[in-house]
Write a sequence for this structure.
């Protein structure tokens, strides 16, 4: 096994940053294939917490090349800010990072459209991260997007003018919002030209050379499978494909160049933003289960968005969701994170099916309204009072925690290959 795709398989925030950072010393290249500054990957090393949005989670390691693929969307302000934060911490980002020349740029009008559309939707909003992700991917598909390499094109000015005319019509006439100025856009373009263009590269070429030389590649996803624009809880999803298959198109590699798919999930479930969540127990709007297990997860798990700071909704492990993810991604091994958050609960539950109108459903319905109306069918297992925090070997786990792990493997029909027991790099069990 050399080339692995690491992806989240719930609704994002599964702890991918830590797992990728952990795997980075054993690989030569870490490559991001989709998403943008909507992602927030938190790394904790010693006492230091680093949140990365665009930059692959391998950046803290010497000798690891980090690539941002064509399938991503890049906000020049955010990426430069992130680079500067790392440079200030002494990380030689410029030597370690290359950006695909085919990356789409998120420009100020994308953020303005995202905000205005969400405001116009009112109660029916998606609950986006507000980073301009949807409008930028829309422009890509509509063939009016601006890519990093387009900063060198003679027709850039005309294309920006045409985009601004269109966007400002939408903003002012349709969405009743303020227009975006050319000066705002130019500021972003100038910054991208000065700081990002020097890092632009032919990413597929780099990857093919590295793969031919026998180097190991880690393909890093963002968000989670249930936020995939095709396979997730549409329309409450992000605007890109987040599944393992997107690694191929989002970087320019072939199917034979992926050997394994690591599906990362929490030992429970969280979600930010709107949309169905069958096993939800707790949310900031006041939903709270009688046993307070959801509140326990939110508080002990510190469940606040690393990018937006929004409180996350929490609930039991949904094995129907994870089974769906195992199928659509071809997951070969699971990495279960935040096991320690369940310490102290009297019992723990696994959702093994849904019930809808008296019928038992074994897979995730494509229709959001059906998923919203479905009730979870739970298997209840005894909890444990001992601490699993920081455990580094299976024999340090209480018997009931181990039993939960084995049950997850059996129900999801997938082996667990890693178990994370705390935020630090060392808080891990390899199975
Ligand atoms: P967008 O990606 O900003 O358009 O947001 C669409 C949906 O995806 C919203 O429900 C967001 O909360 C969710 N989302 C986007 N990125 C992430 C992430 O990195 N973690 C968790 N949820 C995310």
């Amino acid at each position: 096994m050399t080339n692995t795709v690491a992806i989240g398989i719930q609704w994002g925030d599964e702890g991918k940053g830590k797992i990728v950072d952990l795997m980075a010393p054993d690989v030569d290249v870490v490559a991001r294939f989709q998403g943008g500054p909507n992602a927030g990957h938190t790394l904790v090393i010693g006492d230091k917490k680093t949140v990365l949005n665009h930059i692959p989670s391998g950046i803290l390691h010497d000798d690891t090349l980090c690539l941002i693929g064509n399938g991503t969307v890049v906000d020049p302000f955010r990426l430069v800010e992130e680079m500067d934060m790392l440079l200030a911490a002494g990380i030689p980002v410029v030597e370690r990072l290359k950006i695909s020349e085919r990356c789409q740029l998120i420009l100020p009008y994308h953020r303005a459209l995202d905000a205005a559309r969400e405001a116009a939707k009112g109660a029916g909003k998606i609950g986006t991260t507000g980073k301009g992700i949807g409008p930028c991917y829309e422009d890509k598909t509509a063939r009016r997007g601006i890519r990093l390499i387009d900063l060198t094109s003679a027709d850039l000015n005309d294309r920006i003018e045409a985009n601004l005319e269109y966007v400002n019509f939408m903003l002012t006439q349709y969405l009743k919002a303020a227009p975006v100025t050319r000066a705002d856009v130019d500021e972003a373009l100038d910054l991208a030209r000065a700081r990002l263009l020097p890092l632009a590269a032919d990413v597929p070429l780099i990857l093919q050379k590295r793969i031919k030389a026998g180097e190991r590649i880690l393909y890093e996803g963002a968000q989670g499978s249930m936020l995939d624009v095709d396979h997730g809880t549409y329309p409450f999803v992000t605007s890109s494909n987040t599944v393992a298959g997107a690694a191929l198109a989002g970087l320019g590699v072939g199917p034979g160049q992926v050997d394994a798919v690591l599906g990362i999930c929490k030992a429970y479930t969280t979600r930010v933003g709107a949309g169905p969540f069958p096993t939800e127990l707790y949310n900031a709007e006041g939903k709270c289960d009688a046993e307070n297990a959801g509140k326990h997860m939110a508080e002990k798990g510190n469940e606040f968005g690393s990018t937006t700071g929004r409180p996350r909704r929490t609930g039991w492990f949904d094995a129907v969701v994870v089974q769906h993810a195992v199928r659509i991604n071809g997951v070969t091994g699971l990495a279960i994170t935040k096991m320690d958050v369940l310490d102290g609960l009297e019992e723990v539950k696994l959702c093994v099916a849904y019930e809808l109108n008296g019928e038992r459903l074994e897979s995730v319905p494509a229709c959001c309204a059906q998923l919203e109306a479905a009730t979870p069918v739970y298997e209840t297992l005894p909890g444990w009072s001992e601490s699993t925090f920081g455990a580094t070997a299976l024999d340090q786990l209480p018997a009931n925690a181990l039993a939960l792990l084995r049950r997850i493997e059996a129900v999801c029909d997938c082996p667990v290959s890693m178990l994370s027991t705390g935020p630090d790099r060392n808080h891990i069990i390899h199975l």
